[in-house]
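lol so apparently i was supposed to do this last week
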Amino acid sequence: MGREQVGVYHILGGRRLCGTVKIQGSKNAVLPMIAAAVLTKEEVVLSGCPRISDVEDMAEIVRSLGGTVWWEEKDLHLNCAEIEKSHVEGALSKRLRASLLFLGSLLARTGEACLAKAGGCRIGKRPTDLHQKAMEVLGAEIFEEAGTIFARADHPKGTVLCFPKKSVGATENAILFAVGAEGVTRLCHCAREPEVVHLCRFLRAMGADITGEGTEQITISGTYGKTALSGCRYEVPGDRIAAGTYLLMGAATRGHLTLLNAPLDEMGAVLSLYQKIGGQYTRKSGTLVADSKKVQDAVPCVETAEYPGFPTDLQSLYLAAAMTLKGESCICENVFEDRLRTAEELQKMGGTLRICGKWIYTEKSRLHGADVVSRDLRGGAALVSAALLAEGFSVVRKTELIERGYERFPETLRELGAKIIVEKEV
Ligand code: EPZ
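anyway here it is w/ EPZ bound
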């Protein structure tokens, strides 16, 4: 879908989701890998890459820098032999938050980076201070003017960096920069999210020397003056948030779903919550069979937290399911300060919801169809979930936000029994 298009879904409610879904490759794992592709002059192939607009936007940035990017079926090929620029145009960087990851990789590749402050979902202030500070500690000169970040690093040398606060993106950016430095960099108080782990594994496949991913301390031995990173073919892991999304949509509609390629080892918090509300599942390697017919009881309080806690990206999807549960549910959003706006749209559908700062309370509600607007990617998916269980027709607007992160979303839901008509306006 082109950026100038806006999308609308028309949904008939009262449907259970039943059937099999093959979980897409992980959005948040693959976006940093695309930024990392500029670190090598050789070809990188990302197998099983999700075909979503965030990936297309990152690919567009690589092209704008002088790289070549093309699809072969489900594989995304990137060739960054020629990187002519270190300036990401504002119109491109503003499309998505992950564009900020070119700060680290461009600094490592060209010694310079210039990019307008990134856009992305409006779920809070989303400052970039941790990213900028990390680049500075790692040896870059950095300043900001009129919303654009300028950075330069002639000869970065390994050092010790302790993040004052955990951040997935800032950890990834620091790793991307440090792989090009001279000597050893030790990063402390790092994010432990699986996406950071996947980036490290990917960089290792390119020849980088990294240890400690998945813990709070990551050590990188940089390539400066040594053998350059090589190309590689890498299998993009399954998307834990997409898998959690379908699981919770199944719970909301009391469906029966088989999820293939789900990264179950990364889904502990959501699987445990699913069981607490009455969901039953069996798992075997990457396959999850989830039966939601006994989903019934509210859980008094669920708080979002960094990994391995309950992910903020599934908060609104759980909220949609919580409106079908017996008793009061309380959800606390601890990661982003403005990620409860979907609740206002759910109220239009008859949801009984009360927001109190970062807390939201809900109870069993009789939902009816309504005309609602996606506020962010995951919130949009939550509205679709609510529309599927509501009585009557709903219209969900701004679905281009949903399609930033979910591959073949309406098609997949249709295959599971949903009645959805897609309208696109240019
Ligand atoms: C990543 O965002 C994900 N995005 C988000 O997924 C996810 O919600 C988030 O991590 C938390 O898990 C991508 O991977 C592309 P953070 P990121 O830096 O890296 C504050 C989705 O729906 N902070 O870990 O931007 C920040 O405001 C998306 O797929 C600073 O204060 O998240 C937040 O409160 C949305 N200063 C907290 O840290 C900074 O410089 C954690 O954010 C950076 C962040």
